UniProtKB/TrEMBL annotation:
Signal peptide: none annotated. It is found in: Cell membrane. This is Multidrug effflux MFS transporter. The keyword Cell membrane applies. It comes from Dyadobacter sandarakinus.
Length: 410
């Protein structure tokens, strides 16, 4: 693969993976305007974020088998077309309930990009290059929080929040064109993959029996749900508690995105000296400490606007290290069930994100405590799962070795 093709493939895969993050980030500055126009409260508007995450969670489970059965491109065209239609539905909504429903369908369509991009990495790149490619894709994803809220803030302030969804529909239409003309086919259709419910369930059970997959999917998925707590609570914290404007909120969001961009670039360097397992273990310990400091500081009212932003930056810098390495380690054991493995991994991540964002909304108390508490919970929980999972695997391996030695002696 020459350098030019490599660049275009990474850009397209990154764009596919960015559809959902962009859809989440771009409308956040419009929450107060949406609440006002639809005559509802911000916590009700936050439920449109939760419904989007639920749609991603369910949709990925649907697309996994479809990508294995029909190849990569046909499900991509179908899902992204649904996204475009649902985006126009969001723009034309007249109630918060309708917005919540349209966001669900928008997610059901757009999430195909998350599953397909990860499956295509396994299709197109050697195993020893995948963590590096995931880092580059994460870099593209990390740029979206810099651009999306800033654009969304200016569009909401100068035109109307409905135009955010119209712009999203236009962006995805361009991505569909890029897929058609420039993206390699990847793994082709496999008629041996059955779409019967029992067969699909059996495929997911086969994937879930792989210990390495389960450890890094569960631990990495919970850890990477931390930004969803930040996303769900940040507009209320910064705009209603600290009284920043829509445009200022967009710039704060963009600044914090540098944390993920920097750590993604750092991951590219660290992989030359350390394994993905070592990087994840260190990062979760680091984020656990910072998360607990955040909770203590917010509870005791140590932080003003700038110090809170600074601590958030320190915490979020770990996200660019955890996500790519967890993805590479989760998918490494698979060849045949890559689509299903990608779907199950992505579904758990977004399911965890949906639950975390809903809890932040439920615990809303006009302080930053629900947001930072759930961020810390994700890191602590991820670290516990990683440690416990590895202990169990080592114990099982040791027990099997003893049993084999006994059987030889007998």
């Amino acid at each position: 693969m020459n350098r030019k093709n490599y660049f275009f493939i990474i850009l397209i895969l990154g764009s596919l993976a960015t559809v959902s993050p962009f859809s989440i980030d771009m409308y956040l500055p419009g929450f107060p305007r949406i609440a006002s126009d639809l005559r509802t409260s911000i916590d009700k508007v936050q439920l449109s974020l939760t419904s989007y995450l639920i749609g991603i969670c369910l949709g990925q489970l649907l697309y996994g088998p479809l990508l294995d059965r029909f190849g990569r491109k046909k499900p991509l065209y179908a899902g992204l077309s649904l996204y475009v239609l649902a985006s126009f539905g969001c723009a034309m909504t007249s109630s918060v309930e309708a917005l919540i429903l349209m966001r669900f369908f928008q997610a059901m369509g757009g999430c195909v990009g998350l599953v397909a991009s990860q499956a295509l990495v396994s299709d197109l790149f050697d195993k020893d290059k995948r963590a590096e490619v995931f880092s580059l894709i994460t870099l593209v994803i990390a740029v979206s929080p810099m651009i999306a809220p800033t654009i969304g803030g200016y569009v909401t302030a100068s035109i109307a929040w409905e135009w955010v969804f119209i712009i999203l529909a236009g962006i995805v239409s361009l991505i569909i064109g890029a897929i058609y003309f420039f993206l390699p086919v990847g793994r082709g259709a496999d008629s041996s993959v059955s779409l019967r419910p029992a067969a699909v369930l059996n495929g997911y059970l086969t994937v879930s029996r792989q210990p390495q997959f389960m450890i890094y999917t569960l631990a990495g998925g919970l850890a990477t749900a931390a930004p969803f707590a930040y996303i769900a609570g940040s507009s209320d914290v910064f705009m209603n508690i600290y009284h920043v404007t829509e445009q200022q909120y967009g710039w704060i969001f963009a600044f914090l995105a540098f944390a993920m961009i920097g750590s993604t670039q750092l991951n590219h360097v660290l992989l030359k000296k350390f394994t993905s397992e070592q990087i994840i273990r260190f990062t979760l310990c680091y984020q656990t400490i910072v998360g607990l400091v955040l909770v203590t500081g917010v509870y005791n009212q140590w932080f003003g606007l700038y110090s809170l932003i600074g601590m958030m930056f320190v915490f979020l810098s770990g996200q660019g290290l955890t996500g790519p390495n967890a993805s590479a380690l989760s998918l490494a054991p698979f060849r045949k069930h890559t689509g299903s493995a990608s779907a199950l991994m992505g579904s758990w991540r977004m399911g965890a994100g949906a639950a975390i964002s809903a809890i932040v909304s439920f615990l809303h108390n006009n302080t930053a405590l629900p947001m930072v508490a759930m961020m810390a919970f994700c890191s602590v929980g991820g670290l516990i799962i990683l440690h416990a999972g590895n202990v169990i695997v080592r114990h099982q391996a040791s027990r099997r070795q003893v049993e084999d030695e006994v059987s030889v002696l007998l």
